[in-house]
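ugh ok so i messed up the first submission bc i forgot one of the chains. this is the corrected input, ALL of the components this time, i swear. 128 residues overall. if the numbers dont match what u have on ur side tell me asap before i send this to the collaborators (the ones from the other lab, u know who)
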Amino acid sequence: MENEEELENQYSICTTCGYMGWPKLKIIKHKSYVDEFIVVLLASLITFSISEIFDIDNFFILFLICIIAFTLEMRAYESKYQKKTVRVLCPKCKNPTMIPTDSPKGKELVEKQLLKAEKEKKKSLGIF
Ligand SMILES: [Zn+2]
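and heres the new structure output, hopefully the right one now
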């Protein structure tokens, strides 16, 4: 799968409304209780190991370590392992019908759009 940044920077055209520009990405994250349970379990394990290694029995400090471990793990998990669906949406009509302008179909559409725009321009200038 292409990465999100690549998709977002891909100049595209909308097959529904003809909008040309950069698409809007909508990321849908899939929640998994099993994964979250593992994250919590790991955070507890890390806290337990640290308390054993450094011989810490201050509850407040252990609580802080646990929170930090959990936050860091959660961040790593969300950026690397969490399953997510990336939808490429048109910023104008909100349809998931944006295609890259360098694809064959995209090129065709861009040409059509340009021809249309040119005609309209000429019309407004009163040439035809
Ligand atoms: Zn559109």
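quick check: Residues 59-81 form the longest helix (23 residues). that seems consistent at least. The helical segments are 4-8, 33-53, 59-81, 104-125.
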